[in-house]
Design a protein that fits this description.
4 copies of one chain form a homotetramer.
Chain A lengths: L1 E2 L2 E2 L7 E6 L3 H14 L9 H4 L15 H4 L8 E7 L5 H8 L4 H4 L3 H5 L4 E2 L21 H19 L3 E6 L16 H9 L7 H11 L4 E3 L9 H10 L2 E4 L5 H15 L3 E11 L2 H6 L2 H19 L5 H4 L3 E8 L8 E9 L5 E9 L2 H21 L4 E2 L22 H15 L17
Parallel strand pairs in A: 3-4, 3-6, 4-5, 6-7, 7-8, 8-13, 9-10
Antiparallel strand pairs in A: 1-2, 9-11, 11-12
Helix pairs in contact in A: 1-4, 1-15, 7-8, 7-9, 8-10, 9-10, 11-13
Chain lengths: 440, 440, 440, 440
């Protein structure tokens, strides 16, 4: 099928969605999609389902839905599966997550009960505050990865899906930096066999996915596919990867506000962010080593948006703090409070306070859905390796090693939409628009 | 001077800044510029002074200052003058405005005292809560306009400036809609002679400016140059005009937040905005007829950003309220409180509360400065009539009648920067960036 | 029964609760009590149900529940009835009010359906934004009052209750001041017969209640029993009355915060209060004449707490504003935002912002319950006329004409508890406590 | 002088104020008092200077100023001295503290420069993030205490003051619990000679004060006089002591709000408090061992106010967190954000958010002033040992060991005022007030 610049294979057959971690985000995604299929809910927050894209000039008034513009899989074609450290089926897990009310879950009880997680690859050394009984055993990490690949193959055989995508929805692992064992595929595969401590469970999932020709999206701040070995493997095998850390809640708000302040060249003296949340994620982040992973992901955002190296006077010396507190009364209803100290004309100080009463999984589920559909589109379009055009969805967007990441949500959206226009051979939008007026 | 696509006359000689209304914004602008000239303050919040512009690819690392990229007038070349309904000189007026502390104003006392406002064209029928003694008299509105033109000419003779710009910094007038008398220049000029009630003082200033070859920027929500007669006059005489209503405070925040929510396709059920402020502006807006003018300007913002016609399900039915309260304890320190009711995945409700402790004139002064410098650039570049590329600075951006305005701050910024790139013959930035990666 | 200083008749038999207005507050009260009776809910927010009272010295550790200390009616003894302008039964009305979820209401559907409102006395001249079909007709206001008295008698006959209480839970009427017709019983009764416009429907209910020996509690800011004619009638007939305007939400918070600031002698320069709510109450208050009634009730609070006449320097010149906005997205979930501008040592300014995400009827229902039980206690204790000791529950507490009202929530609570101690012959608590230490 | 129940010696001569720690609070106190003396500032926030006290019945309208009712020292009689780890004089220290603007400090420069701190007793083991050069040396802690006593004596000789008070305004020490060495005077004095590690610098100051007949008020959360040895010493020697931890900022707000929620029997599920501040105090509290001391003081507040043992259902299971973050952009302008999760009728959840933009030292200075004046009054009235009636000023009020402390700000105020009434032989106020009405 020739469309625009690129040949995109059609979205024929079913699309498997393989979820490592069947917690709040995964079950909210699955239950939501099943409710939507039945007309009992709306997939609000999803760009693939609601977004439009302007084509041509403003006067042409041509703004189709994105899903009518590029050939995406339909929600009816999604088939879910996954792994978890608890054996609860999807219904039990969703009840336990406590995001969607029990009465509403009952409407898709059958569909959810049909999803039984496979045994997870898990090691408490990497997620200290969790433990569970539903865990794979094996001689070494390589063998565990092989088991995951067998799971994937069996899933495909069982369900008859034609393609699959794996969005990581598991927990935040302890902080980890690139090690020699991550640098080449050879070293990595040898490391798995030797149970090298720098190889984490999430890496085994990613390795298994790529080896199985399954695009991988990294929803947590873990290192996972941010290592040369797996990035090269993905390029070589023609598999798209992207990440990392779903951008929701406070960081989403930060990547909305910061570009606004920067646009107007208002100076920043401090940004204090605190969060309260009471779900499993909050509990995991109570562990300092997991928190450090998250914190790195959250802190870098401002640096890239504000470009202190270009605006030393305005952004060269600000205090940025991010705190996360496990506060059980809130359950999944995360709340962020930001205090932003800015300065303007003649250095006069001003303050902005943002209080976001959000819902963690409600914001994350449509992100996961969009990534599933766009990663499948990328795969069918012949794109492979890092998908920078999906930066829009991530707190720490992956990009080529010689580039800096774009954190500005609005640049990210422009990038995403212009990529879609490119795929379909449409003209890039620059918002210049001088041709509407007398030319100078 | 051939530069890029367009011939831009050099910024030689002094640039006159003619200010109708010498209140808080004007005096904060003037005092600020004088302090900056002496190295006693920084023009924070000004894109022309601090902004950078990326040229070429990310890897080229070429991001000059905007003021090094396009030939703008320097701050040392600005010469201020203006009109006011009080005869206080600039120093007295600045003290009265209470924005900058007295100790700091003393540092530029001499410069400020040198600025004595001319008698204003004023009529209390259009601004009911103000009155002052320093007012022109004349047979009819046309004669008043002639007096303004004489003032402008005399200013140029006295100061020797080579060019001038007039940014309206006066009060909000009563609500007014386009009338027959506004439709042609002929009708308008006849109307002035007949003292037609639909011709407001601000229109006389704009008429005088355009007739005197002085670009006009409308900083208030008044109708002023939003009428065919003056728009055609500006086009015919090659004079740039732009407007309207400086985008500061709560509306600035709204045009930052709303595009962020829209980007993520989060639904909106309500947006409640309240403001407290205690300066002259707050007092004027206490009058319902002036408030209505302001309210129109503030309410339309969301409609254009959210495009309910394209996203009926998400944005087709929200409650939007804007309230402004005159609350003297605050003085110029305006404070906004926004409560935003959004909904996400499966329609779950969430809330965002934004509390902005801002300073009205501190945010407006750099906007006025940028408009002075960019309008002068446009003039020297041969651009005339409506300058849509300056939408970035306005609550209700002017655009060609067959277009819808762009309210999204980030689209506005892209438009502004791509216009500058166009003027200098640089490539448009699309943020596509697929060429950094393996091509699909 | 001799108890302490006062003879209190025992709480034998059933207690009728007569509700003028079966809207959100009434149905939340009834449904709540029925749920509590079944063990399906808790009457949180009720001092009569949860409050304790310290007796004797701290070292005695004697703090019984209030309901164990004074002889109150039990919840099982309450029998509900009422009037409304709609004929919906209690179940339908509760569903319509939208405070308690439908699933929960189903658990007491039978009990609620059994309550059918009688036709109301209503006149749209006094509540402009409401109208309904279920309305009494009569020759004149006196005749309507007679019909109410007949309703009361019939209710008692039908249900066999031994005593009754009438807490007004109807709407806010238009603003009204004391008129000659209100000054004596004779004038008042003549006025009813002549349909005097200064006699409002709520006064007819109050008159009917007092004539029927039923204590009356005024939950709205209406004038109602704040008139000499009805106050004397209540005294003469030995019937307790109290009011006015249930203290919930923002005003509750204000009477908590203001005494705290006053305690520390922190000065006040401004208090800006805004409210958003979306229920019937919000709609009614959208009418300026009803809002004025409410505003008077809300504004006076600070004057009495801060005593500007005693503290001219700190409280002699502050700006106090109260705004209420009908904002449908919120339904019954009222939200208040307060900005408080204070000043301290050497006049340095500080700010407090309070954002209260409350629920109107959820806060009002236990207030209504407590008043029912305490008014019945007062009646059985032989107390009559104005019950100042119940000021704790009201925005505009009634008191003897030669006194100033106490608005400080903590003085009000002390008064309430010391009254209970007095009724039972217990020692007054002064918190002096010097006897625990060496005496000076 | 016979007055009321108690003989109070007159406030003749000068009163010395001995300040251990000449940081932000001390210098704000001193500069403020000097400004007030000159009529250049107002001592807002001070109950002794602005508070009134009602005497007799409401109808008597007798509400004198507290300072006219009890014989307090006047501000003109205060003479300041102190110790610090830096040798800066009062003017330099005040400039460094950055609370009061330099221009204003200049107005009392001479008075402040005249105050040179004595060398401090200091040991970094107890305050880890501070160090300074202006420190006493000695053989052991006993010898250091002797040096302090000599300092006190020399101060009195030099200034001719007739009485002195010592309010501790130094830093928060590491967390410490009562040890055997604290239990008797004998053990304590032996411990000083042996340099026992459980004896902290603040204890040496307190010991020196009591031995010198100087009342001691503990403004920090340190253990200091909360030990039997010093409490007995104070009683034996007839010296008043009180503490601990000046109640300002967020905890002040908490002791205002919590009694309000408790009054209405609203349940509590969580209270999350976070603070940002950027002064020396914030820096010291960045050390976990100092923070623990502060946290203990802050956390206990709710327990005592809410009495979970009496109200298990409403207050038996809430999450209470207090966080303090050193955030330099704020300087002395502390900011608190509280999120309070409450529940009402039928357990419906509601939220209160309080954002307090306060100023640490501006709130603390009048507290220190009041304590100086009231402790001197207590001393002259023959009161000794723990002064529970001053609980009003403290986060962790001291009380007799067999009592529980009162944390409710309003009970504390009642206690304070009834104590003053007692001292002057006035009737206790109970707010019963039934005598205004017909008696039941």
């Amino acid at each position: 099928m020739e469309q625009g610049n690129v040949t995109i294979a059609p979205a024929q057959g079913k699309l498997g969605v393989l979820l490592p971690g069947m917690g709040a985000v995964s079950t909210t995604l699955i239950a939501g999609v099943e409710l939507v299929k039945k007309g009992l809910g709306r997939p609000v927050g999803s760009l693939t389902q609601y977004g439009t894209i302007r084509l041509g000039k403003r006067t042409e008034n041509n703004q189709p839905l994105i899903k009518d513009f590029v050939p995406l899989a339909g929600l009816d074609d999604l088939v879910f599966g996954g792994w978890d450290i608890f054996g609860d089926n999807g219904y039990e897990a969703a009840l336990h997550a406590g995001v969607i009310e029990p009465e509403r879950l009952k409407l898709v009880q059958e569909e959810l009960e049909a999803i039984t997680p496979l045994k997870a690859v898990f090691d408490q050394n990497y997620v200290r505050r969790l433990s569970g009984p539903h865990i794979k055993t094996g001689q070494n990490k390589y063998e565990l990865a092989m088991q995951l690949m067998e799971d994937i193959e069996a899933f495909q055989d069982r369900t008859g899906v034609t393609r699959m995508v794996m969005p990581w929805c598991g927990s935040t692992e302890v902080f980890m930096e690139v090690d020699d064992v991550h640098k080449t595929l050879q070293a990595f595969e040898a490391g798995m066999k030797e149970n090298h401590p720098a190889i984490t469970p999430s890496m085994l999932y990613a390795y298994a996915a790529i080896m199985s020709n399954v695009p991988f999206a990294n929803g947590a701040p873990n290192l996972t596919v941010d290592i040369p070995a797996l990035q090269e493997l993905a390029s070589d095998r023609g598999v798209p990867i992207c990440g990392k850390d779903f951008k929701t809640g406070q960081t989403l708000m930060k990547t909305i506000m910061a570009p606004g302040l920067k646009a107007r060249m208002l100076g920043l003296s401090g940004w204090f962010s605190t969060n309260i949340l009471g779900n499993r994620d909050g509990d995991v982040l109570h562990d300092p080593s997991s928190f450090r992973t998250k914190e790195q992901s959250k802190l870098s955002v401002l640096e890239y948006i504000l470009q202190p190296e270009l605006n030393e006077e305005l952004y060269g010396d600000y205090e940025h703090q991010v705190h996360i507190h496990y506060y059980p009364p809130r359950g999944d209803n995360k709340e962020g409070w930001d205090n932003i100290d800015i300065f303007g004309w003649l250095d006069y100080p001003m303050q902005i306070k943002v209080n976001f009463l959000c819902r963690d999984s409600i914001l994350a589920a449509p992100v996961a859905l969009d990534l599933v559909l766009f990663m499948d589109l990328a795969h069918r379009s012949g794109m492979s390796g890092i998908q920078e055009w999906l930066s829009f969805y991530f707190k720490s967007p992956m990009c080529a090693p010689f580039l800096y990441p774009e954190h500005d949500l609005f640049i990210q959206l422009t990038k995403l939409k212009n990529t879609l226009r490119y795929l379909q051979g449409e003209e890039q939008i620059t918002h210049l628009g001088l041709d509407y007026y007398q030319q100078p």
